[in-house]
Specification:
With 330 residues, this protein is of the alpha/beta class. The protein contains 11 helices and 9 strands. The protein has helices at 9-13, 32-45, 75-85, 95-98, 118-121, 125-140, 152-164, 194-226, 230-239, 249-254, 259-274, and strands at residues 4-6, 21-26, 50-55, 89-91, 144-148, 170-174, 281-289, 303-313, 316-326. A 6-stranded parallel β-sheet has the order 1-4-3-2-5-6, with helices on both faces. Strands 7-8-9 form a 3-stranded antiparallel β-sheet, with helices on one face. InterPro entries: Pantoate_ligase (IPR003721), Pantoate_ligase_C (IPR042176), Rossmann-like_a/b/a_fold (IPR014729). Homodimer.
Length: 330
């Protein structure tokens, strides 16, 4: 197949549509994570549908001192990757095409959720992101739009905007793509020196440590619920690696630190160690939040949660997250 390169909305609107249109929005510098999104979009669109990849470096979501000017522009390579992954068209508009007459006076506000975590670190970022997503949804007119779970807060805000403002589009989440060593794929990984990249592995390492502590705790709780007798409880504990023959399973399962507190502690230990590396990791935030509003969860929380981290290594700022489920919902 040959992937069309389009630069205006008129060109895009002139294309004949037969089936579903699925859109993947990017800022270019495409990598395997984007390719995974495009392949998922191909499935969502179906054999008779169309996949459109947008490539647009949005100036509204870059704050003062951020990397707008040095953000990589690799359109030729992006077009090739998009074609190999199954895109029918790449829509790469100019700033004037997206924002005719200059920066828009009317913008989408991200509200309170947009002021937390990434929003607190990058004021105005999510307002700019939602504004361009809204514009690109209008320009591309898709049936479905696919976004990666690595940008969990962005995904949550887009879903909220689509629901609150009655956009007629399906938002599809695609799991984070990682390199073999666990580092989440990102266009910004190319900025890392070999030493910085080794330090950056602490982000995923912290998330995995929190996940593993959570899994052990949940397994212990489940075993405690299933085993009725005191002796059998002790044997169950020993079977999963807790050599506490005299312990009662219920007491162990509820002992501090447990639940969200234990997850945070396990993740923070990895990040604290990385702060002493050369070069060091400089933590921005570690948070365990409710994906509905990105507020911190309490120790009695049950349901889906997101363990999120952001940090700088050298001059590069990286984010990552993992979904977790606590309590009865697990």
């Amino acid at each position: 197949m040959s992937t069309a390169l389009l630069s205006t909305a008129d060109e895009l609107h002139a294309r004949v549509r037969h089936g579903r249109r699925a859109v993947v929005m990017t800022m270019g510098a495409l990598h395997e994570g984007h390719a995974t999104l495009i392949r998922a979009a191909r499935e969502a669109a179906g054999p008779d549908g169309e996949v459109v990849v947008t490539v647009f470096v949005n100036p509204l979501q870059f704050g003062a001192g951020e990397d707008l000017d040095r953000y990589p522009r690799t359109l030729d390579a992006d077009l090739k990757l998009a074609e190999q992954a199954g895109a029918d068209a790449v829509f790469a508009p100019s700033v004037d095409e997206v924002y005719p007459g200059g920066e828009p006076q009317v913008r989408v506000s991200a509200g309170p959720m947009g002021e937390r975590l990434e929003g607190a670190s990058r004021p105005g970022h999510f307002d700019g992101m939602l504004t361009v997503v809204a514009k690109l949804l209008h320009l591309t007119r898709p049936d479905a739009a696919l976004f990666g779970q690595k940008d969990a807060q962005q995904l949550a805000l887009i879903r909220r905007m689509v629901r609150d403002l009655n956009f007629g589009v399906e938002i599809v989440a695609v799991p984070t793509v990682r390199e073999e060593d666990g580092l989440a794929l990102s266009s910004r990984n190319r900025y890392l020196s070999p030493g910085e990249r080794r330090t950056a592995l602490a982000l995923s390492g912290a998330l995995f440590a929190g996940r593993d502590r959570h899994a052990a705790q949940e397994a212990l709780r489940a075993r405690a619920r299933e085993v009725p007798s005191t002796q059998a409880r002790a044997e169950a504990l020993s079977a999963i690696g807790e050599s506490r023959a005299a312990a009662d399973a219920h007491a162990v399962a509820t002992a501090a630190p447990g639940g969200p507190a234990a997850v945070r502690a396990a993740a923070r230990q990895v990040l604290d160690e990385a702060a002493r590396f050369d070069p060091p990791l400089r933590l921005d935030y570690l948070a365990l939040v409710d994906p509905a509003d990105f507020t911190e969860i309490g120790d009695d929380f049950t349901g889906e949660a997101v363990l999120a981290v952001a940090a700088r290594v050298g001059t590069t700022r990286l984010i990552d997250n993992l979904p977790l489920t606590f309590g009865a919902a697990s």
